[in-house]
Amino acid sequence: MSASSPAELTSPGLGGGLRDIRQSGFLLKLLVRKELKVRYRGSVLGLLWSYVKPGVQFVVFYVALGVFLGLERSARNPEGLPNYAVYLFSGIVLINFFSEALGNASRSIVNNGNLIKKIYLPRELFPVASVWVSAVHFFPQLVVLVAGCLLAGWHPSMFQLLAAVAGFVIVGLLATGLGLLFGSANVYFRDSENLVDMLLMVATWASPVMYAWSMVEAKLGSTWFAIYQANPITIGVELFHYAFWFPTTDGTTAMPPNLFTLWTPLGLVIALAIVILGQFTFRRLEGRFAQEL
């Protein structure tokens, strides 16, 4: 038997990164199933929590902002947003997906420490599986959103449906990249979990989920608004608004300028750059995961 050449040797505990995910599809499915079973073990409602939690969240925000603060357009408030319920819920389902995906991905390595210490498998599977689990919870909410849109007279074009896909992809890539970054950092610095919690709290209000982008532009001016608009979450939410809410309006409400020619490509580039940064950080830190855990 011939000895392996130095070129064939690899550092122990290191794999091919996200490229290994394509070759570990079966393991990814097992991890997703495990996460779902563990999460709903002993639960009475089970997957129905995917409807209950965003439903309660929607009612609270709709009453507080749409009714009390007057963001819903009505005869008494013609300056409000038409079909504010659709506007609000289309943003909530996407921000909930991001919050759950990043929150779980940032804890995925630590929570699976026993498994990581026993066997070797691509460690990127754990943050990626967390994002997939969040996608499983996202699609029931999407069904409810589509049903509400249809009741409001939703007739989307193919371009608007593609905008929804683009928004989901941008936010999904962003959650994956940040999940790799904070998931690996959390092994060494457990303060990362608290930092992620604060980021998620800010993310809910730093994107136009509950208010209109025009309100931000009016208060901040064009320069600061451009910085605000470059946020990939903001871009994803606006793409969802364009896909689900805009077709239910009378067409008099404008979308952010350059949403498709500038902000959508920029959001995709930023999200991909964060995936690369997250993968680079993960690769640098994963060599001592088992020892640190």
UniProtKB/TrEMBL annotation:
MF GO annotations: ABC-type transporter activity
Every ABC transmembrane type-2 domain range: 45-285
InterPro entries: ABC2_TM, ABC2_TM_bact-type
Topological category with respect to the lipid bilayer: Multi-pass membrane protein
Transmembrane segments: 55-72, 84-105, 125-154, 161-183, 195-213, 225-245, 260-282
Subcellular location per the Swiss-Prot or TrEMBL entry: Cell inner membrane; Cell membrane
PROSITE patterns: ABC_TM2
Major localisation: membrane
UniProt entry keywords in alphabetical sequence: Cell inner membrane, Cell membrane, Membrane, Transmembrane, Transmembrane helix, Transport
Record Pfam families: ABC2_membrane
GO cellular component entries: plasma membrane
UniProt GO BP: lipopolysaccharide transport
Family to which this protein belongs: Belongs to the ABC-2 integral membrane protein family.
PANTHER family: INNER MEMBRANE TRANSPORT PERMEASE (PTHR30413), TRANSPORT PERMEASE PROTEIN (PTHR30413:SF8)
Protein name per UniProt: Transport permease protein
Organism of provenance: Pseudarthrobacter chlorophenolicus (strain ATCC 700700 / DSM 12829 / CIP 107037 / JCM 12360 / KCTC 9906 / NCIMB 13794 / A6) (Arthrobacter chlorophenolicus)
